[in-house]
Amino acid sequence: MTDHYYTNDLRSRRDFHFNAKGNLDSLVYRDADYDFYDEGVPPYINYKKKERKVTTFSNYDQSQNPFQNLGVFTDLYYKSLSKNNFRKTQTREYDEEGKPTLNISESSWDYEYVNGEVKVLK
Questions:
Q1: Which domain holds residue 53?
Q2: Using one digit for the tens of pLDDT, what is the confidence trace for 41-94?
Q3: What highest taxon heads this organism's lineage (predicted)?
Q4: How many domains does the chain have?
Q5: Most buried one in 40, 82, 84, 99, CB count within 10 A?
Q6: Is residue 32 part of a domain?
Q7: Which among 49, 15, 35, 29 has a CA at the least distance from the CA of 93?
């Protein structure tokens, strides 16, 4: 699955990768390139460039995802794409040579479960 959107008037691309269980495995984000000398050339994605940002989603539970139909809400968009519930994300940036930079962020959380399903409301 691919998603295009504009950031600071430049087009960017997000490629979504899913595992065999129907869960979001990773998201690869690339900024578009553009020709500084020829404004007539539209922005484009250069896949030969190794610069990118990769977010991995992991530590999935076996519970049905209660957020699947809530993708219209920005905060729940990534959660809504999976069959189950991820409990950890890691975002890592890679430089022009494809080497990891020091920019890494991680998040993890626990859900409360009732009868094996995620408890959404208190």
A1: 12-121
A2: 888 888 888 999 999 999 999 999 998 888 777 778 999 999 999 999 999 999
A3: Bacteria
A4: 1
A5: 82
A6: yes
A7: 29
